[in-house]
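User: What would this chain look like folded?
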Amino acid sequence: MLRTYIIQSTDYSDLCDYFIFYDPVHFWCQARLHRRRKTMAGCALMAGVILLYLIVIMRQNAYVAADDVSDTTKQLYFVKSYKCINNTCVVSKLSSIEKENNGVDGSLDVCRLTCGRYGSLWPKPSVDTTIRNSIIEFGIDNVKFDTSKMADQLSREYMSEASQVFISSLKILCIPNCVSNAITSIISITTSNPFDYIKLTTNESYSLKINTEGNSLFINIEAKTVYGARNGLETLRQLVATYGSSLSEKKLVMASDVQISDRPMYAYRGFMLDTARHYFPMSTIKRHIDAMAHSKLNVFHWHATDSHSFPLDLPSAPLMSKYGAYSPDEKYSFQEIKDLLRYILCIMYT
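Assistant: Here's the prediction, encoded as structure tokens.
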């Protein structure tokens, strides 16, 4: 028995979802539903592709945003930069991706080398000083001394030990290490008077010239006596500085265009250390000697004994230190005294 439906609407697609037709109408609805399923499957596939594409784009944008944040964080580092303005090293803050400024302009010591008339020299030379704004890198391994023009053998021996002290001071600057450099530094020292112990009338004047030729750095020190040459060597030491990271290899630099003529303002330039009333370890005494040498002092007054204590352990009077020292640990052995005197002669004069 066939059923008959009266359909008022002309849109048969909705009726296919609710009624089952027979004969031609039935097959027409089945075809319609099949096409709809294919269309829905295609739409779902397209939606999946679009969703995947959006996920990829969002991830790329997230990575770019993370890189931007990282770059922004790196740019937040502010490092110090020094520049000589009106004879004064002025500091400024620069943005950098590094935590510290390892360049030449990041070192205050390098800036002070050539800033102002006297640079970093102390005491100030008293005759004539010309320090131009020029520095050069050099290596500690290529520093050579030429003492062939010194007056006698004793002068050469004295300056040989003084040169070792000079190299040791450069190594201290280089802690933990300095990079090697192909520049050869030749320090030529000339004296005219034979070696003699220092007196108040000793000539301690000197002249110092520094210039470069190709891959060589020439330093000429001329003096009447070894003590003047020693002053010139100390001035040269003050014209050297380092820059770079303190955690890695540093670089040595020297003022490369210098002409200095100098002589002491006073013949007696001394310092007294009283160890009779207050005991100082030998290392502390040597540290004072180093400071005196850097300031070009020439007399060390060691007030070693007094009524308060007698810390000198002398073979000729062994009981004096035994009963006169503050304690067995607060006295100076005979060997320590001899070493100190030799150290003073090499670092200073007397």
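Helices lie at 23-74, 108-114, 153-173, 226-238, 282-294, 318-324, 334-347. If you want, I can go into more detail on any region.
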